[in-house]
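Methods, example record. To illustrate the input and output format used throughout this study, we show the complete record for Tetraspanin. The sequence lines were provided to the predictor; the line carrying structure tokens was produced by it.
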Amino acid sequence: MEGDCLSCMKYLMFLFNFFIFLGGACLLGLGIWVIVDPTGFREIVAANPLLFTGAYIMLAMGAMLFLLGFLGCCGAIRENKCLLLFFFMFILLIFLAELSAAILAFIFRENLTREFFTKELKKHYQRNNDTDVFSSTWNSVMITFACCGVNGPEDFEAIPHLPYSSLEKATPEACCQRELQSREGMFVNKEACLSGIERFQNRQGCYTVILNSFETYVYLAGALAIGVLAIELFAMIFAMCLFRGIQ
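The corresponding predicted structure is encoded as:
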């Protein structure tokens, strides 16, 4: 009976580590995609030190989970106590790091409010000044998502024009409709847009557009994170049980 329990534990350990292996592969792929994606995310990540660091942390965590899942599978099948102990210690460190990151994300969630982004936009945005990282990043976001400001074009009314601009309206070029949503895309009617004709402008705020675009993915990421934490917890339990059961 004891041998049957040990065998069952071994295969359960293998199963959970296989899921960790897959989770690590997903995180690794997602991290690579965020860093190399050509549709504007690369500029956003590069411009924000927190996002830049987070992308590389996700990449590193994915690679580590990928490796540990592989080692855990090998340790379980071969019944190697050294591999199992190594796996347990590192998966414990990763578990604690992920738990800390989740707690910090919950604590600082107020920094992702509509009011916060509106305040930062009005304070730092310099319209078509592409030498300014903040302005260039916002322009990329507005062009990529076909949106304007945080809440809409009215966000730019308090932002001064460039000294040589004689236009009365406040709408920046990045809010103008394009035939293709990229920096290379041709304007539908740039002059009409900048003169204030609304049908040639992107009127919807970026906060709503991005929130709607990523709402499903946020819930999916949250569910995936909870699932990964649960799998890691069970994997540690099985690793210790298997470690103690191996003679």
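Annotations derived from this record:
Helices lie at 2-36, 41-47, 49-78, 81-107, 114-124, 133-145, 190-194, 206-245.
The longest helix spans residues 206-245.
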